Task: inverse folding
């Protein structure tokens, strides 16, 4: 498994990034092509404009032919209007294609991430994934919508300009090109320096932002320890660092821009000097000189733009690489090709010699076997790290076991459709995740087939209705991320209602140990009783009362199943459970 | 108008630089006009055959000299004006941070860290744009337009100028409209993007629930909606841009057409020379920038003013906790604490979180506070540290009302271990010595030993120089907690508050730390807030809080005999402990 992923990684590094990026543009190739043709036409028209005026000067203005001037003006006007239309169409088509491509990539990444196994999320920070789907994908837009075509456009423009100039006058063209290496050299030099200074400034900015975020969060501590002065000095130092980096960045521009300007002046005077000489000698006309003066200015633009675009292309590729790394991440839990579909899950669960480790040989479960009959209530008892919670996770196949077999109603869970499997299992967790939305949307999640009636029924059944009815907007009351507005007990009740609304055959739960006020605790206990009714229930229990009432108690110790049986049977056994119980009763 | 004052205060400091910058800008804009003129003179001379090679050379020399001055000048105004705006930004950033340090907890509770940081990034950035680039754009928009127009009129022709400028006026007006329209669409786009981000963030954070309830496909569908919205909003922005950019081009083109027809006519009739005709074409191009600059400067200023207002609001925020005239000259505390009928609520709209608390802690005694989440335990600690103001007369230290004690004295004499074990991303040595003026390693080690963290630290490769957090080691909850205890012990203060500070360490370590405390804090006052009975059973007195009220108060034995909340909690916690012990 591991090996295969390494190979994939290498493949994406090996410069196929661009090819892969292009493959997303494929469905829109005819749009891209249209835009490209339009760009060619636009460039041609742009180059034609000075020629029009130059010719008019030579042929009409010099000869006093005003109707010729008028004719030229009409042509010029038409060129303008056509350019306008083409320009608009070109930009719009490309942006449309770009946005569509971005939309598709984003859907794909989001979809792919949701297919990945929990293990992936255990080891990948949320923030990183969010950045991939949002900012990194956004960075690609610029490439599809602008860079690709403009890159071509500028190359064509430079070549076109050169060709036109050459065709008009070879000698003058040669002088116009003399400075080209300097311009390119200077631009390249500037790009590399400015990129370096930019990077430094970014780093300093990140440092100061990290510092700010940390110290605003830790402001209480600063005040409690009376460290305001010292912290201010630290901040000032970082702030001045950033200032210096910004200043340097500004200086790079302040030096580069005038330098390029000087080069443009030099090339202008070169053209005037040489061209003037040729005019005096009568080799070229004054109109030709005008055309060259105009062209020499437009020569600078595409070269500098080109440098800019190559930089953007680079950063887009960097983003793309990060996105592809995620897309290349293979889900560890894959649905079988021909899953065994069960009609109505009864809830008989069997572990057969199960061995499980999150990583390598670090066994969390060692050779664990047990059977749970439909409708049974089973409590797992054991210290932290005994493997209780892992058992809960394995039943829903959130992780795959290394050895042994887990079956539900006699079918290996690896042969089942994971969607069917997980739908049959209701999970109640200690930490209840609340989605931004309202109470209703937190009970039904995104399943629209659960009606408002169903929601109210579920809430009433698990005693959640009492607190919900007291909220200002009852079921429409807005709740925020992490449920900050609800108490721990209320969140528990809400999660019960959520679980009940999905009516699972099997209930898997981690009994809450959080400090919940006495009143709510009573409600929760009642609700739990109702929830467990008629369902196979597997729980990690913390309270003696819950444990005692279980049909079966399984004692786990260091990854091994040590004892199992009813309360009375285990007491008779005289093992760990008995010791526990006696200590408790004292 | 009052809002803008604050920024003038900063600008004033750099007024000479601004004056120098603007002067240079003036020279640059003025000289800039001569390049087309010189070019025009040469072409004219060549056209009429009145100029020989030397004449051309002289013209070229003039262009080069002006070009050099221009280059220098362009460096100069960037240096003075952009430089000053950067300096103002830096100064403002420092002052803003200093001001935040004086504000009270309630301010930080009200304002999210992210929002406060946005002031440092977005607002300062907008202010910098208004004090730097906006100066240039508005100067160019005004002065440069006038100068170019003057030149066109004087050097070429008034009528031609008036006609050719008509399309450019649309450019200026359009620019302002465009600035407003694009900003609105841009905001909408940002909005859609942040909605998209929120949705992704939540979906990934809630992955467990999504998988457990098999919601993957429904999530994807919901995401498609946000994704589509983001796309649509983006397209709205680019549609405008796709239209405006060619429009700019066509408007300039119209000017060129007018120039061609009417200028051509004037040239034919001999009213202007061909050289001037060429120069005029160049002047038209020179007017494009000032027109765009008009729109830009309006945008810069309007955003800048909005940001200045927001920053000003922070500066106007007054600290709630400050020393008033009743403060006495006290520089040391002994450690006697009295609560007298303490009632407290955070704001007048919220319910009371503490009700009728009356407790006395003698110097050198230990008070334990126990209670469920939300029962008011931490609030007591916060009030003692004066993070909030308790009503006068309800909290006394050494017999003085807490408000009579200087803030610095109060906080220097109380060592506090907070619940959340916040450590800075700094070395362990600096973290432990955080509250102390003496940072000697011996003292740090002594505190670390007392907090039972010394051995762990010595096991890190860099020992006390180990960085905490993302760039260094990730400490476990227990290690963080013990480092935080060491940080408090290092202060060696007469009063120590442990706010649920032993929850993440195992029972053995807890016992050792408690024993160390007993030994080293002889004669000093300690307040221990905890959930675990084992932590507190040896305290001199135990206060059990329930919804802010004193539910039970007494020694361990007294409370056990009462068979109330305390006894009940004790029973429940036994099972947990025994499970661990098996």
Result:
């Amino acid at each position: 498994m591991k090996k295969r992923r390494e190979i994939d990684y290498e493949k994406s590094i090996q410069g196929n990034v661009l090819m892969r990026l292009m493959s997303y543009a494929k469905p829109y190739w005819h749009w891209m092509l249209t835009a490209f043709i339009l760009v060619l036409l636009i460039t041609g028209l742009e180059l034609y404009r000075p020629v029009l005026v130059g010719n008019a000067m030579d042929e009409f203005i010099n000869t006093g032919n005003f109707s010729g001037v008028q004719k030229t003006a009409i042509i010029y006007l038409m060129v303008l209007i056509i350019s306008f239309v083409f320009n608009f169409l070109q930009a719009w088509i490309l942006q449309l294609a770009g946005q569509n491509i971005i939309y598709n990539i984003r859907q794909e990444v989001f979809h792919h991430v949701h297919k990945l196994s929990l293990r992936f999320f255990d080891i990948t920070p949320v923030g990183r994934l969010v950045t991939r789907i949002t900012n990194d994908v956004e960075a690609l837009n610029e490439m599809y919508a602008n860079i690709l075509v403009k890159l071509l456009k500028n190359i064509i423009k430079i070549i076109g300009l050169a060709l036109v100039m050459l065709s008009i006058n070879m000698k003058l063209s040669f002088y116009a090109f003399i400075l080209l290496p300097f311009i390119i050299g200077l631009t390249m030099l500037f790009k590399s320096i400015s990129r370096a200074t930019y990077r430094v400034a970014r780093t300093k900015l990140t440092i100061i932002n990290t510092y700010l975020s940390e110290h605003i969060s830790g402001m209480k501590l600063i005040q409690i320890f009376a460290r305001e002065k010292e912290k201010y000095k630290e901040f000032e130092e970082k702030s001045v660092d950033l200032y210096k980096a910004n200043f340097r960045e500004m200086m790079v521009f302040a030096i580069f821009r005038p330098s390029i300007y000087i080069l443009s002046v030099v090339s202008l005077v070169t053209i005037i000097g040489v061209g003037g000489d040729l005019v005096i000698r009568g080799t070229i006309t004054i109109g030709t000189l005008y055309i060259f003066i105009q062209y020499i200015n437009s020569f600078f633009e595409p070269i500098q733009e080109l440098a800019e675009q190559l930089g953007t292309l680079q950063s887009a590729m960097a983003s793309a690489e990060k996105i592809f790394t995620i897309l290349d991440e293979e889900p560890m839990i894959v649905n079988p090709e021909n899953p065994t579909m069960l009609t109505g899950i009864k809830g008989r669960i069997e572990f057969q010699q199960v061995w499980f480790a999150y990583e390598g040989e670090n066994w969390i479960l060692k050779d664990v076997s047990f059977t749970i009959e439909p409708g049974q209530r089973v409590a797992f008892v054991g210290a932290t790290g005994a493997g209780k919670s892992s058992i809960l996770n394995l039943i829903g196949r959130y992780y795959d076991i290394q050895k042994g077999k887990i079956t539900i109603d006699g079918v290996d869970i690896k042969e089942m459709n994971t969607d069917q499997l997980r739908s049959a299992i209701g999970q109640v967790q200690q930490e209840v995740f609340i989605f931004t939305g309202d109470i209703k949307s937190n009970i039904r999640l995104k399943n629209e087939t659960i009606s408002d009636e169903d929601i109210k029924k579920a809430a009433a059944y698990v005693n959640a209705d009492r607190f919900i009815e007291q909220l200002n907007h009852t079921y429409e009351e807005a709740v925020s991320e992490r449920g900050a507005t609800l108490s721990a007990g209320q969140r528990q009740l809400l999660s019960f209602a959520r679980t009940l609304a999905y009516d699972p055959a099997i209930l898997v739960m981690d009994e809450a140990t959080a400090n919940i006020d006495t009143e709510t605790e009573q409600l929760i206990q009642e609700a739990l009783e109702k929830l467990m009714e008629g369902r196979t229930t597997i729980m990690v229990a913390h309270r003696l009362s819950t444990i005692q009432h279980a049909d079966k108690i399984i004692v786990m110790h260091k990854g091994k199943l040590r004892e199992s049986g009813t309360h009375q049977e285990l007491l008779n056994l005289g093992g760990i459970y008995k010791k526990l119980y006696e200590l408790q009763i004292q | 108008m009052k809002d803008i004052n604050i920024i003038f205060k900063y600008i004033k400091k750099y007024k000479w630089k601004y004056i120098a910058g603007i002067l240079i800008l003036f020279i640059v804009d003025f000289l800039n006009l001569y390049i087309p003129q010189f070019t025009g003179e040469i072409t004219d001379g060549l056209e009429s055959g009145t100029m020989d090679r030397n004449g051309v050379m002289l013209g070229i020399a003039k262009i080069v000299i002006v070009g050099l001055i221009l280059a220098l000048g362009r460096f100069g105004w960037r240096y003075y004006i952009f430089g000053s705006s950067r300096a103002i930004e830096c100064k403002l950033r420092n002052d803003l941070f200093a001001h935040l340090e004086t504000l009270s907890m309630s301010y930080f509770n009200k304002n999210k860290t992210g929002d406060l940081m946005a002031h440092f990034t977005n607002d300062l950035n907008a202010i910098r744009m208004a004090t730097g680039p906006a100066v240039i754009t508005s100067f160019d928009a005004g002065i440069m337009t006038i100068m170019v127009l003057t030149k066109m009129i004087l050097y070429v022709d008034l009528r031609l100028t008036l006609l050719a400028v008509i399309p450019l006026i649309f450019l200026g007006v359009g620019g302002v409209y465009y600035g407003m329209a694009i900003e609105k669409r841009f905001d909408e786009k940002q909005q859609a993007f942040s909605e998209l981000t929120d949705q992704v963030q939540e979906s990934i954070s809630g992955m467990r629930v999504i998988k457990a309830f098999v919601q993957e496909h429904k999530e994807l569908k919901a995401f498609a909606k946000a994704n589509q919205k983001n796309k649509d909003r983006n397209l709205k922005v680019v549609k405008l841009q796709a239209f405006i950019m060619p429009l700019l081009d066509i408007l300039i083109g119209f000017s060129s057409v007018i120039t061609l027809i009417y200028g051509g006519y004037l040239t034919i009739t001999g009213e202007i020379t061909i050289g001037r005709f060429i120069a005029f074409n160049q002047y038209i191009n020179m007017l494009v920038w000032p027109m765009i600059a008009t729109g830009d400067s309006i945008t810069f200023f309007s955003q800048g003013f909005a940001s200045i207002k927001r920053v000003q609001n922070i500066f106007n925020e007054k600290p709630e906790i400050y020393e008033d005239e009743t403060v006495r000259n006290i520089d040391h505390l002994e450690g006697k604490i009295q609560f007298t009928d303490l009632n407290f609520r955070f704001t007048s709209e919220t319910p009371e979180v503490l009700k009728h608390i009356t407790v006395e802690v003698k110097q050198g005694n230990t008070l334990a506070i126990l209670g469920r989440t939300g029962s008011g335990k931490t609030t007591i600690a916060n009030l003692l540290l004066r993070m909030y103001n308790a009503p006068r007369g309800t909290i006394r230290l050494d017999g003085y009302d807490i408000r009579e004690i200087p803030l610095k004295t109060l906080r220097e004499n109380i060592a506090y271990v907070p619940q959340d074990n916040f450590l800075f991303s700094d070395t362990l040595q600096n973290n432990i010595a955080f509250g102390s003026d003496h940072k000697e390693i011996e003292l740090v080690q002594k505190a670390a030993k007392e907090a039972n963290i010394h051995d762990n630290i010595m096991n890190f490769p860099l020992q006390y120089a180990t960085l905490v957090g993302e760039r260094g080691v990730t400490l476990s909850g227990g290690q963080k907690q013990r480092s935080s205890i060491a940080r408090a012990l290092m202060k060696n203060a007469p009063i120590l508050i442990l706010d649920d500070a032993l929850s993440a360490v195992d029972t053995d370590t807890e016992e050792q730390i408690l024993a160390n405390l007993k030994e080293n804090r002889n004669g000093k006052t300690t307040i221990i807030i905890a959930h675990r009975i084992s932590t507190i059973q040896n305290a001199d007195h135990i206060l059990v809080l329930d919804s802010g009220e004193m539910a039970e108060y007494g020694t361990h034995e007294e409370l056990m005999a009462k068979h109330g909340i305390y006894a009940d909690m004790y029973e429940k916690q036994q099972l947990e402990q025994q499970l661990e012990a098996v």
The first strand of chain A starts at residue 349 and ends at 357.
